[in-house]
Amino acid sequence: MSRLIVLSTIISLFAAALPASAKSPTVIIKVEQGETEPKLVGDVPFHGKRPTVDVALLLDTSNSMDGLINQAKSQLWTIVQQFAKAKKHGKTPVLRVALFEYGNLGLPASEGYIRQVVPLTDDLDKLSESLFALRTNGGDEYCGQVIDRAVKSLDWSTEPNGYKAIFIAGNEPFTQGPVDYQDACKLSIERGIVVNTIHCGNSGEGRQGHWADGAKLAEGESFNIDQDRAVVQIRCPQDEIIIKLNTELNKTYLWYGAESERRFYYRNQVVQDSNAASLGRSVMAARGAVKASGGYSNRGRDLVDSFREDDALLTKVKVEELPEPMQRMSSSERKEYVEQHAGKRADIQRQIAAHSVEREAYLAKEKQRLADESGQATLGDAVVGAVQKQLAASGFDQVDAVK
What we know:
- This protein has 403 residues and is an alpha/beta fold.
- It has three domains: 3-42, no CATH class; 52-230 and 375-398, 3-Layer(aba) Sandwich (Rossmann fold); 239-370, no CATH class.
- It contains 14 helices and ten strands.
- The strands form three sheets. A six-stranded mixed β-sheet has the order 6-5-3-7-8-9, with helices on both faces.
- 44% of the residues are buried.
């Protein structure tokens, strides 16, 4: 039997044993006559300039879920940090996050008490704004239907080696509603989207309510959390300096677009800083660390982030859509102005990144010390645990430094 046939058979058997979410694009192994080593011919690791990460958060906003929403607000930036530290072949992924709420009586019954709050977006400030606007109101919780809606309605990435995942959190049985959760979860994994389930309550109730079964069907992780547990805020020596540097970082943003859009982008960044700070200095420091990373980008809104990927951008933006100081400048002055702000931002980001590495080390020690006292997991614990495991399985590397 030829070496090519043997190799092809082995790889076919190996690939068949893998779960759908772990399979790579088709790769053909060739051994040319006279060669001693096989060559890989086929799809490259990813087709775009950067790998992709798409995540949909599906949160129960019925009456009993105030604690869950508070955990989501408190731990958003800690969760995002996990993606900010991930790289594939040296490239930071393009992160997009969507948000759905379900089980809220304030939503139309005809829609299954479900609302897409935010589509898949890289605007993390918009996501934060929407989280802080959520309000709970008792209702029927249809897990299968909200998963089905997320799978079918979002513009999920078609990148062959990207990471696509749903995280659904709630407390009622997974079996409620007109859409069978088994069908929804099977459809999700068929489209390469892992479903992770987070039951708010004890493990016995979660198993009886089929939360673990939903995750198993879609090759995800299943967790049980205490949604009413207060998130422990660990103050780190580095928090203060990161928060101060974040203030300087904000000064490097050059928002563009219609005047009303520029005002909104500026105001919303400041408001989300304030929202994070209202939850504690550690939350604000975590947000500052994310803003200094590749996981936080304002392409299409900020000239510095946008110019980095399109150096002809300044010739495309209308004069009246530029920041006011730039509207009176010459073409060369505008380019120099953007480059100056880019240089300042890079310097501040490097400083924040260095302090963030020290902060992560301090946090790890403190979390270990407090582990025996921490009790049941929170939303952030569950998401971070699943993300670390699944990113590694998808070929991403976790790095210590936030760059």
